[in-house]
């Protein structure tokens, strides 16, 4: 399991063969190294903070959002439960690489006004077109920090098209 701590972008973490407890331990190690214990975890000089969710510790909520996905029913409606997603989890160590903008020529960074639960919410997207990977940040009300909402591989039908549509309608400024 420690071998995953040696993985670099654009390698994938090797977790598919691990048992559930081993997989969690390996992913938690990468998460702790890159996010929990990273005092310099900032995007363009703004501190990145985890979101909160119904009394769950913020870092636990963030870890869940970075390694699982929403379950859906047969009609495609989101359920309240989440399940492990290999594609997100195998790319967990990519977050730090993209947040630090190690290769800015590969990235498209833009802000877009999303409609979330009937409200307009500005979100900032860090989009790696070559790897079809996106990180979603939300500026705090103070505009001094960001919330890291999620990061995922665009492996769903229409996912890449949806991000590219948002990119075309991006705001003039990055928030």
Give the overall average pLDDT.
94
Low-confidence stretches: none
Along the chain, the helix and strand elements come as HEEHEEHHEEEEH
Estimated helix fraction: 25-40%
Seen as an oligomer or otherwise, the chain set is: single chain
Number of strands: 8
List keywords for this structure.
six-stranded mixed sheet; 27% helix; 175 residues; 8 strands; two-stranded antiparallel sheet; alpha+beta
Structure commentary:
The protein has 175 residues and is α+β, with helices and mostly antiparallel strands. It contains 5 helices and 8 strands, in the order αββαββααββββα. The strands form 2 sheets. It has a 6-stranded mixed beta sheet. A two-stranded antiparallel sheet has the order 3-4. A hairpin with a 5-residue loop joins β3 and β4. The longest helix has 17 residues, at 20-36. 25% of the residues are buried.
Q: Can I get a quick summary?
A:
The protein is an alpha+beta fold and 175 residues long. The protein is built from 5 helices and 8 strands, in the order αββαββααββββα. The chain is globular and about 45 Å long.
